[in-house]
Amino acid sequence: MPACDGDLRLQGVGDLMTIQVRVGPSRIAGQGLFAAQAIPKGTRIIQHIGEKISSRERARRLAAGNAYIFHLTYRYAIDGQTLDNTARYINHSCAPNCEVEKTSDIIWIVAVRDIAAGEELSYNYGYDARNYQENPCNCGAPNCCGYILAQEYWGLIPR
What we know:
Elements: E1 3-9, E2 16-25, E3 31-35, E4 44-48, E5 51-54, H1 55-63, E6 69-71, E7 76-79, E8 91-92, E9 98-102, E10 107-111, E11 122-123
Parallel strand pairs: 8-11
Antiparallel strand pairs: 1-2, 2-3, 4-10, 5-7, 6-7, 9-10
């Protein structure tokens, strides 16, 4: 599959910098998003894009099985189900190399450490402990808790 571009605007810099990423088979789950170049720690890699929806519509779409919805504020969420949202291919990991950074209207995926070219991008999806058994984790990290959970809940579930 060809490389996809994630756009990055450096704070305080007017030039647009493109971070090269590619979609490919993942050892975690289905397809994943991979760095096609070395990415330094702190880099805004790609935006999670999609339709801005109300909290009520968010609840309806989640109940219908949409897994690409991202909480933005108490009033709004971003539905990233669109195929234009390359960030939708980023899988969960209990030892992620990325994190989510939210501004008022934008959700960025940001490197939390240096990432090597060819490495799969991941972040902790941050699920709460409700129905945790329905979301087993296959990240393979040495510290994997076994479920897709925010780290704050790891000590609350049986091992």
